Amino acid sequence: TILDYALRIFLSHVAIKKVVVVVSKNDQVWPTLDSFHHEKVFTAIGGSSRMESVLAGLLALKSLANSEDW
């Protein structure tokens, strides 16, 4: 898929330690993709708007990143 292709580029970069993918709570495709099982990939559940989904992704990163990562 396009998502797997794009994620492979990020996941192969040595400086990238983690990737958060934000999906709908009803998404049935994401768990079937190869990237879903990658050790660097974390999933966050999005909201009802883009703003809420971006916030969910940022909050997920907050628990995974250090302040100097920004």
Blueprint (SSEs and pairs):
Layout: H1 2-12, E1 19-23, E2 41-45, H2 50-64
Parallel strand pairs: 1-2
List keywords for this structure.
2 strands; two-stranded parallel ribbon; 70 residues; alpha+beta
Major beta-sheet overview: 2 strands, parallel
**Residue fraction in strands:** 5-15%
Question: What is the C-alpha radius of gyration, as a whole number of Å?
Answer: 12 Å
> Could you tell me the number of beta strands?
2
Q: In order across it, which strands form the biggest sheet?
A: 1-2
Shape: flat
As residue ranges, the low-confidence spans are none
- Report the end-to-end length measured between terminal Cα atoms: 29 Å
The average pLDDT is 92
Structural class by SSE content: alpha+beta
Number of helices: 2
Helix content: 25-40%
Q: Could you spell the SSE succession in H and E letters?
A: HEEH
Description:
The termini are far apart. Strands 1-2 form a two-stranded parallel ribbon. The mean pLDDT is 92. With 70 residues, it is an alpha+beta fold. The protein is flat. The protein has helices at 2-12, 50-64; strands at 19-23, 41-45.
In summary, what is this structure?
The chain has 70 residues and is α+β, with helices and mostly antiparallel strands. 37% of the residues lie in helices and 14% in strands.
